[in-house]
Amino acid sequence: MPTRRSVTGTRRTVVALFLLPSLVLLGALVVYPIGYSVVRSFYDASGDRFAGAGNYTTLFTDDGIRTALKNNIVWVVFAPTVSTALGLVFAVLTERVRWGTAFKLVVFMPMAISMLAAGIIFRLVYDQDPQKGVANAVWVGVHDTFAQSSAFPKAHPGRESPLKPDAGGFVTAGTVQAGRPVALPLVGVAPDQMPDGAKKAAQARSEPGKVTGTTWQDFTRGKGVGRLDAPDPSELGYAGMRIEAVKDGRVVASTTAAADGTFSLPASAEGARLRLPASNFAAPYNGVDWLGPALVTPAIIGSYVWMWAGFAMVLIAAGLAGVPRELLEAARVDGANEWQVFRKVTVPLLAPVLAVVTVTLMINVLKVFDLVFIIAPGSSQDDANVLALELYRKGFSEGQPGVASAIAVFLLLLVIPVMLFNIRRLRQEGRR
Prior knowledge:
The chain is of the alpha+beta class.
């Protein structure tokens, strides 16, 4: 009689044959590179001489790597926490609105953008120039709402001017007299930068008992066609320029120039010197240096949160859909308000999901590279450095493949415990 083959054995053989290509590919793309990196981490830059643990010693003595490690700790603590918290808030709140699906779509949409594209977007968002960077445009707009910037930051006296520098502003060399108009010409403001309300400068009229004068943009001075002591027809007045009368270091009177640059001070200004205070010439507020050494890491973390909060929201929303509504309603019937229901019922029931999301994001941020490489400018890239970026710099820019391999192994050792924790949690959930 012919021998019957085991059905189980046949199936195992078929399964092994189907898995073989995947195992070969996994070995070639994962196992071999890991093994080679471990071996390479014990050799010097040339790859010919055994360096022992020298490359691993460098991990804790090199300033660049130590900065990268500190920044990675900041990333691991804040980026997953903030992303998960926002995802939780979005998931809970969108359950109560009819347009919740559309909101989730908008929040999740950044996940469709690559890290490279997101880095380019936020490099522009954080641009120092308020005319280009959205963040500074908003910041400067809010600032100027409460503290208006000067319209004359580059104004200064021209040749033969009666004004001289004084504590960031300018003051007349001599005292002024009532009934004798004063000319306060300035130059240095481009015509397109003049205040919108500025009109053609006018010669101030003499008024008994008052000190009058004109302050204007004397741009024709020195060309042989303009007058040295009075405004020309084509010149504009410095509308809004503040003028102070100073006696013995005290301001005895002050006023603001009209649209045509003319001004008038009371009789108390007679015998005083006229001062254009420094506030007239303060440089315009230029916003925050988002990509400077102090803020570059939080700024990049902000771009990461923008991308991954949607991911957290979708997973948490899926977990929230499985929460028994009877428990929530029972809590409300027992007198709990919405905050108490959220804190003492919803969050504890979502704890497994929140743990998985947080751990997944922790693994992700340990490998972050693209955002830091693209967003951080060269001047502050050292301050924003992370381990993945330092691995690239050591291996390709500084010619130290042994140290780069040691960083790669160190990153693997950091990721493995987090991965094991995540796998354990998933298995526990599967058994329930």
